[in-house]
Every structure is written in structure tokens, then in C-alpha cells.
Fold this protein.
Amino acid sequence: MANLSYTAFFGDGEHTFRLTKREIEELQIKCGSGIGAIANRIAARNFALADINETIRLALIGGGITPKRAYELIVAYVDGRPLIETHELAAKILERTLCGNPDEDSKQ
């Protein structure tokens, strides 16, 4: 089974990010587009603020953080910061969601 989670340092420490079906559905509603369109916008750097913020927030929740704590992390480490700082994280989360972990596939 493909590893769809992504672990990275964010804000105050290492966090696991994962978009499950439930979070993908909410992301699509919050951003008003399908997951493919959101991923394409981020890859092309033609994104909306919600594309970045909601991808990270919902992936934190999918990774096991409470919704309240995920919101607090977004307020503390995303809001008011240059978007490019969190663009790469959102891109990695979506890449892992769509493609899995390519390093894991080579080990099989």
C-alpha cells in the first residue's frame, strides 16, 4: 500500500501531513475546485490563498492533529508570512496525496 503521508518540520516541530478522503472532500469544498485543479494551481504557482492554507490545515488534521491545533498552527506559522514559505509544503502534500512516495516504490 502506498504511503500517502508526508512528514516535515513545520512551525514548532515535525508533523505528519496526510489528506484522507474526508480531508480531500473538505479541501475541494473550501477551495471550490477538484483536487486535481488545486494541485495544478499550486504546481503552476497560480494558486489562491485558500489553496495553500486549507491544504496544510486539512493535511495536519488528516495526520492526526486536532482541528483546533491545526488552526492554531496556521495562524501562528502561515498567516501573515510570505506565501512562498508555505507553497513548497502544500505542493509536497499534494504530490504525496496524488502520487504516493516514489522512494517507497523503489524498495519493493
